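Appendix B. Chain record.
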Amino acid sequence: MLFNSIDFAIFLPIIFILYWFATKGSLRLQNILLLVSSYFFYACWDWQFLFLLIFSTLLDYYTGIKIHKATNQRNKLFWLWLSIGINLGFLGVFKYYNFFAESFADGLTLLGLNSNLGSIQIILPVGISFYTFHGLSYVIDIYKNRIKPERNFIDYSVFVSFFPLLVAGPIERATHLLPQILKKRDFNYYKAVDGLRQILWGLFKKIVIADNCAEFANTIFNNSADYSGSTLVLGALFFTFQIYCDFSGYSDIALGTARLFGIELLKNFAFPYFSRDIAEFWRRWHISLSSWFKDYLYFPLGGSKGGMWMKIRNTFIIFLVSGFWHGANWTFLVWGFLNTLYIIPSIVFSTNRNNLDIVASGKYLPTIKEFFAIGITFSLTVFAWIFFRAENMEHALSYISQIFSSSLFTFPEFEGMIKALTTIFLILFFILIEWQGREKQYAIEHFSSKLKQPFRYMFYYFIIIIIFLFGGKEQQFIYFQF
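Structure tokens predicted for this chain:
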């Protein structure tokens, strides 16, 4: 069930009405409804994988209790590593088996040996990377004595499988979400309206920007050998806005939907394309994943306490693992490696925390220095996205080599270029709105406080009209494949 589908447009109001009216304010009934609706939501993708989700939930629920009950360190570690091993084992089989099997076979071939280790036809369960990380953070936090295990299985299951975040995040922490699930929730009109606004902006980002950009990015990337360098640059730019608006659009819809039920999820994006350096970009892009790796991998590895060598080593590990988390392909590892190279100078020269504030805060325009810093950071990000989007390393290198050719200085040209101009104007409109709202939680929240009611509603209806007039062909959310 897609957020931008008719099915979801029917599903959400039904659950909303039942949640606030049929349950009569009973927390137990509300949580049961959330769990049933979440399992139904997930089963709409493939009901068979629902059993994997339930098994993963049972595993972490049980091992969390056993870790807490254990009377010695050895038993605590046993249950912790049982949970980690089984969770990562499932993730490894479903997501990485073919990658390792093929890479191993290629390595043996280079040595003149043959391998019979073949690939297997397997479907990646949607959302497995996200709900696996939910469970892992839960058992690790219990082991670290940050939280106590939740004894109510229904409440814990809602934490793992709450439908707005189930298939593409944000990656929640038990310390943040579980207390909200256990606490009585009363309807708040202003919070619900705010949620609807964020859903609206998320739908605009997904349907108008991401889906239209996807059409042109796919055309150019899938036929890159036929196009000039300038056209390939345009293709990379289309993908750059596609992936941001696709994923942050999903996050906006998820956060807005959760707010309708009185629940606040972790913010996942903070206008990353206005970043002045790569360190700032990674504080603003997929925040829940970046912070997860920081807390559960970077700090356990020693963080930055062991000197410069440890900082650089741990940064390499974090970005390579982050790249590998996104998919079983060498292109993702190179994408992670590139971002490591981008960020290391700021670590070496201790400038990685120079830009903690919001760019041009309280001003209409950035300074000349900020403008060029944003431009350089954005350009580096676009270049890295080429590896992320390419089918394989050969495709990525071919794509880049064609960009840096004499055809780079020609006018971009491809089938559908006239139609693409409309999308470019829509992107410019989108950038303007995002810039105006960069100091808020999401872009159009800015207009709810700045515009008087008649003009505010005119603006919202204008966004709705644009969605219906210029919405692209329905595309699956990119991060469903991760």
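Further analysis of this model is presented in Appendix C.
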